[in-house]
Task: inverse folding
């Protein structure tokens, strides 16, 4: 659980920093999106929508790595 929280915090902070500085350094923009696009399963009385996408950039990956390293130090 701690690993998940640290990875999430690292990814969010890295993404925020990347977007904040992307106007000055365009190389920091998100460069790829991975995941599953939202899909819907309709059973007439019940409807499920599921999907997960992640936009990765260089600073986001750095944030994820720093979150993982912080977990290893605990």
Result:
């Amino acid at each position: 659980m701690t690993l998940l929280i640290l990875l999430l915090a690292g990814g969010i902070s890295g993404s925020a920093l990347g977007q904040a500085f992307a106007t000055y350094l365009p190389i920091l923009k998100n460069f790829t999106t991975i995941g599953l696009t939202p899909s819907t399963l309709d059973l007439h009385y019940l409807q499920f929508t599921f999907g997960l996408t992640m936009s990765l950039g260089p600073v986001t990956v750095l944030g994820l790595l720093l979150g993982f390293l912080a977990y290893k130090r605990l």
Q: What stands out?
A: The chain has a mean pLDDT of 92. The CA atoms of residues 11 and 64 lie 5 Å apart. The chain has one domain: 2-73. The beta strands are 32-42, 47-56.
